């Protein structure tokens, strides 16, 4: 009898220990689930707060743009700004979109009714295509066929009709045969990376020109501000002048720029290395001293969240600023 009682007590002890082990495991899992839920909630909360901080940074930057239209040069303190905030920081980088070749300059304008104005349009378009052809063939080292493909397909990508331009143009029938199939946008370019959809340049030459191009929506001008150019932008000057200056001269022009920048286009063209050059009126018109388009990259660190906002900004002659587009990125 005593032996059976001892066996029963031993079995009960094992059962109790087993139940306690199961309860301990369940409690641990519940605590871990609760901890993960708390962390997920905090991460989501921090991310939402970081998003609004990014919009606040954008608002602050846009409030300053009116002062930058006519300013000779944008100082580093104008272009790169950082604010401390509780649990992190807001940082933004402002870039003028007048130190790059506008992809929308390849968009064909509506023909003018006046014959003289139509001739002026043709001369401007011929010059624009020559600038692009030089940049693609001389800087990116692509062949002339690739250059003509990009130019003509850019015309078709932005025009509303279904008629291919020239020998290398492409409309819906061409893009429908690609993998994956697509259609031309029939609108202004919004991003320079859209050139990959044109199926005109191989990857290497495309990567060569991407840092030198941009997309200014609804703006068909080249409009380069030489006060904004950096040493790596020297190929743009060569392209604007059709190769009339070499790479070293283009670099020297940028590096020897007056400390406060050139006051006007005439002063730029009166430099000793340029004043005797024979340049077209279209080439002279491509140099401007104003800024109307900007790219703004705002980064926020808040708590456990990192947030990135890329804004395309426009400021008109009345110094009224508009946000033309936003792209959001998250890195938690």
UniProtKB/TrEMBL annotation:
Its main location: membrane. Belongs to the GSP K family. GO terms for biological process: protein secretion. This is Type II secretion system protein K. GO terms for cellular component: plasma membrane. Residues 100-217 form the T2SS protein K first SAM-like domain. The chain crosses the membrane at residues 12-31. Keywords: Cell inner membrane, Cell membrane, Membrane, Protein transport, Transmembrane, Transmembrane helix, Transport. It is found in: Cell inner membrane. Residues 224-287 form the T2SS protein K second SAM-like domain. InterPro entries: GspK, GspK_central_sf, Pilin-like, T2SSK_SAM-like_1st, T2SSK_SAM-like_2nd.
């Amino acid at each position: 009898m005593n032996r059976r009682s001892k066996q029963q007590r031993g079995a009960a002890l094992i059962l109790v220990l087993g139940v306690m082990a199961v309860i301990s495991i369940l409690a641990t899992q519940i605590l871990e689930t609760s901890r993960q839920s708390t962390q997920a909630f905090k991460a989501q909360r921090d991310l939402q707060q970081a998003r609004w901080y990014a919009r606040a940074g954008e608002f602050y930057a846009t409030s300053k743009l009116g002062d930058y239209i006519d300013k000779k040069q944008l100082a580093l303190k104008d272009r790169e700004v950082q604010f401390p905030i509780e649990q992190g920081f807001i940082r933004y980088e402002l870039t003028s979109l007048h130190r790059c070749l506008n992809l929308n300059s390849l968009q064909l304008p509506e023909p003018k009714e006046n014959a003289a104005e139509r001739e002026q349009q043709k001369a401007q378009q011929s010059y624009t295509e020559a600038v692009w052809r030089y940049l693609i063939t001389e800087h990116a080292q692509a062949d002339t066929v690739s250059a003509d493909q990009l130019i003509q397909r850019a015309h078709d990508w932005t025009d509303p009709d279904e008629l291919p331009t020239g020998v290398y143009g492409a409309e819906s029938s061409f893009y429908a045969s690609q993998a994956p199939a697509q259609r031309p946008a029939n609108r202004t370019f919004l991003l320079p990376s859209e050139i990959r959809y044109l199926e005109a340049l191989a990857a290497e030459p495309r990567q060569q020109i991407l840092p030198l191009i941009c997309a200014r929506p609804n703006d068909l001008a080249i409009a380069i501000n030489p006060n904004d150019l950096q040493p790596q932008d020297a190929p743009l000057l060569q392209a604007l002048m059709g190769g009339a200056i070499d790479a070293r001269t283009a670099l020297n022009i940028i590096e020897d720029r007056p400390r406060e920048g050139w006051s006007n286009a005439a002063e730029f063209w009166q430099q000793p290395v340029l004043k005797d050059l024979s340049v077209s009126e279209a080439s002279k018109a491509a140099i401007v001293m104003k800024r109307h388009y900007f790219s703004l990259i705002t980064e926020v660190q808040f708590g456990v969240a990192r947030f990135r906002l890329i804004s395309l900004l426009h400021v008109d002659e009345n110094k009224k600023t508009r946000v033309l587009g936003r792209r959001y990125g998250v890195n938690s």
